[in-house]
Amino acid sequence: MGGTVQTDIDPRSLIGRKAYDRDGARIGTVDEVYLDDATGTPEWAAVRTGFFGRDAFVPLKPSALVGDTLRVPYERALIKDAPDLGVGRHLSPEQELRLYHHYRLDVPEDPPPPPERNPGPDAAEGSGP
């Protein structure tokens, strides 16, 4: 029995694992792992597929490690049709949004911006007692 991908797992340990879809059909081999910019946790895996030799991005959060394989809870056809974003470079927020929509995942909320320091009128430069 497997569990969802641990957020504290070493991403390098996923590289080279065989990936399978929800029906047990082989998708390919994990080629790269992409980390969340804010948390540093593994978020996406680029899986080298047999579909024209390209990499397909799959979400790691709903996926599970089963033995030495990665089980992705989506049909092979959906994975095959994932946006082709290329690999080897950072995913932009727009590219990530495309992936979230493709897999019908809830888009994570951005952390709120830090509060602006707004000194009161008494703290203006040059004013003093």
From TrEMBL:
Database matches in Gene3D superfamilies: Photosynthetic Reaction Center, subunit H, domain 2
Region entry Disordered, spans: 100-129
UniProt superkingdom: Bacteria
InterPro entries cross-referenced by the UniProt entry: Bac_photo_RC_H_C, PRC-brl_dom, PRC_barrel-like_sf
The PRC-barrel domain, residue ranges: 12-73
UniProt name for this protein: PRC-barrel domain-containing protein
Lineage of source species: Bacteria, Bacillati, Actinomycetota, Actinomycetes, Kitasatosporales
